[in-house]
């Protein structure tokens, strides 16, 4: 945590001349703060990642879009903070810039076991609290989300009525039909790719958007004989 007298310059002294008294950890925090300003609100997250092998770390930057364009600008900033990796006093720091769609695709592949995570440590650099912040949704995105949520709400109401009427099989069908549009709404609201299947909707990174309802939905997907009304109630809070 930063002390009251620490500012961007005390953390983020650019490495022109590479002051060896400023360690890599401080440079990384300073780089993240400077990157957030330079990309003009397009920064989704910035992390320090340490691979399993190799004497270097990677500053991993995710931008909302235009990764190639922002990447070129951030290369200059990276050189200012970390030089060209020629200083014996600091471990080399490499730069990787991805757009959010690519980052999310990689996360889905990791979740499905198709890609193996090989980092031994990860540290969030921005946002400072480790959360993610995005610009407000566009009106078109809001309309799309509302349409999905309206469809989901109708099916949830139908599932509740059918369950109360002891029509369990029909209620389960209605509940399944509510989960799909709700998953699409959550994807739109979190600016994630819309899921291709119900199973995809429950995988990271979208799975986190279901919050407390996630384990109930997963259990229901595995065993549709589970009680319906608790799932309906949980989904109504998502």
Low-confidence stretches: 1-13, 15-23
Oligomer: single chain
Task: Tell me the name of the CATH class of the largest domain.
Answer: Alpha Beta
Shape: elongated
Beta-sheet strand percentage?
5-15%
Give the H and E element order.
HHEEHEHEHHHHH
What is the makeup of the main sheet?
A: 4 strands, mixed
Class computed from helices, strands and strand pairing: alpha+beta
User: Helix content range of the residues, please?
Assistant: 40-55%
How many strand elements?
4
CATH hierarchy: architecture of the largest domain: 2-Layer Sandwich
CATH topology of the largest domain: Beta Polymerase, domain 2
**Distance between the amino and carboxyl termini:** 33 Å
Query: Helix segment count?
Result: 9
User: Could you say how many structural domains there are in total?
Assistant: 2
Question: What does this molecule look like?
Answer:
The longest helix is centred in the middle third of the chain and has 26 residues, at 139-164. The chain is an alpha+beta fold and 238 residues long. α5 (139-164) runs antiparallel to α6 (168-189) and α8 (213-222) packs across α9. It has nine helices and four strands; from the N terminus they run ααββαβαβααααα. It has helices at 8-11, 24-38, 67-82, 100-111, 139-164, 168-189, 198-201, 213-222, 229-235, and strands spanning 43-51, 57-63, 93-99, 119-126. Strands 3-2-1-4 form a four-stranded mixed beta sheet. It has two domains: 8-126, Beta Polymerase, domain 2 (2-Layer Sandwich), CATH 3.30.460; 139-235.
């Amino acid at each position: 945590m930063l002390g009251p007298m620490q500012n961007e310059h005390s953390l983020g002294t650019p490495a022109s001349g590479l002051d060896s008294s400023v360690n890599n950890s401080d440079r990384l925090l300073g780089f993240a703060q400077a990157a957030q300003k330079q990309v003009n609100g397009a920064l989704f997250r910035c992390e320090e990642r340490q691979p399993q092998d190799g004497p270097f770390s990677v500053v991993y930057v995710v931008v909302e879009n235009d990764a190639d364009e922002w990447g070129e600008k951030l290369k200059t900033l990276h050189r200012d903070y970390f030089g060209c990796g020629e200083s014996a006093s600091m471990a080399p720091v490499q730069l990787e810039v991805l757009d959010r769609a690519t980052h999310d695709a990689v996360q889905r592949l990791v979740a499905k076991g198709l890609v193996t995570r090989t980092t031994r440590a990860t540290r969030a650099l921005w946002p400072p609290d480790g959360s993610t912040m995005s610009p407000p949704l566009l009106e078109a995105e809001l309309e799309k989300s509302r349409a999905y949520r309206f469809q989901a709400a109708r099916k949830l109401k139908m599932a509740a009525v059918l369950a109360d009427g002891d029509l369990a099989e029909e209620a389960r069908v209605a509940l399944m039909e509510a989960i799909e549009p709700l998953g699409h709404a959550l994807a739109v609201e979190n600016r994630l790719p819309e899921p291709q299947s119900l199973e995809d909707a429950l995988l990271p990174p979208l799975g986190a958007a279901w919050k407390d309802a996630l384990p109930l939905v997963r259990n229901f997907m595995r065993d549709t004989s589970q009680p319906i009304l608790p799932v309906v109630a949980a989904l109504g809070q998502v």
